[in-house]
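User: Teach me something about this protein's shape.
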Amino acid sequence: MTILHTLKNRRSIHTFKKINIPSDILKDIFTYASYAPTHYMTEPWELIVYQDEGKSSFIQSILSSYERIGMIKPNNEPKAVKMKESMRDFLMDIPHHVLIYFDRKQDQIRYEEEYAAVCAFIQNAQLAAWEYEVGMLWTITPYMHDPLFARDIGLGENVKIAAVLQVGYPKSIPRNKGRTPIEQKIKFITE
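Assistant: First, the predicted structure itself:
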């Protein structure tokens, strides 16, 4: 595939086969991702890959966060228990959860530069993964903004969780929904 073909044909994947991606392929994908532009060559991205039984404590931290922030009722009523079990099962079925974070800078400009670099890294990862027939879903979910969640998973308080990528071999690939013609988004100023 060419990069232009991959850019146009990559899709966000929502359902995955229950097969792990070999570690060497994941390393290759994230090595290619690391060629993202980065101000001052800081390469701010850090990754934690949760897989196999390592997903259990991560998912428990997600569920605990959802209880704290009110998305799940923190009780043992049958409906709440069923919802937690359903979420746990859904998240456990995803082969890999890749948490991407960086150290939070006090300087707003440096913070935005680092965040932009991390986002470029994430997009590169998605494109590289597609070349390996690996799918990803870039998620930004409420638990990422819960400061106690970062503590629960062993990160310090001075980090920004940029994303959690759900990663695996696609069970199905969504259809191409097209894009808005660029002519509707672009302006050329000549004078």
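Now, about its shape. The radius of gyration is 18 Å. Strands lie at 46-51, 96-103, 135-139, 159-168. If you'd like, I can walk through any region in more detail.
User: That's plenty for now, thanks!
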